[in-house]
Design a protein that fits this description.
This protein is of the alpha+beta class. Helix content is 32%, strand content 24%. It is globular, with a radius of gyration of 16 Å.
Length: 155
């Protein structure tokens, strides 16, 4: 059993690494909400990306456990305006995927803007770090403090 699990995780790791490369720009194909979107590779493969270290309000009801939250639609619109018809460069932390199979990433716009930080400092997301993916926790904490003090976005 352990051997099968090892092979499964090894295959998943190799498959993931073969598909999305770090520091590579990918076309954004769809925005789900303020912290989740899809990218498309040159081969038209689509991957769901969840931004690491931040959490935006839910923009819609999903199932029975996830309800639309205050400021969720505004956060989605804000991210849509930033990412529509754009490309993002992805970098990763310790974990590459979450329990839902989404790719965990830090994203950079073509002009160099660090999207995760930008969303927090403009009040469209809050800090939500989960070890071991904590590379930018101090950056995000400063950004959130700035947004709160300046009453930006949801503050």
């Amino acid at each position: 059993m352990k051997h099968r699990l090892f092979l499964l995780f090894t295959f998943a790791f190799l498959f993931f690494n073969a598909q999305l490369k770090e520091n590579t720009f990918y076309e954004v194909s769809k925005i789900s909400d303020g912290d989740t979107f899809y990218v498309k590779t040159k081969n038209s493969e689509k991957f769901k990306i969840r931004l690491i270290g931040i959490d935006a309000p839910e923009s819609r009801n999903v199932g029975v456990n996830v309800r639309e939250e205050y400021f969720g639609k505004e956060a989605k619109i804000y991210v849509t305006n930033l990412l529509k018809n754009k490309k993002v460069k992805l970098t990763f932390d310790v974990q590459k995927t979450d329990r839902y199979g989404r790719i965990l990433a830090y994203a950079y716009l073509e002009n160099g803007v660090f999207l995760n930080q930008y969303l927090v400092e403009n009040g469209y997301a809050v800090v939500a770090t989960f070890p071991p993916n904590v590379k930018f926790v101090e950056v995000f904490t400063k950004a959130e403090k700035l947004a709160r003090n300046k009453k930006r976005g949801l503050w």
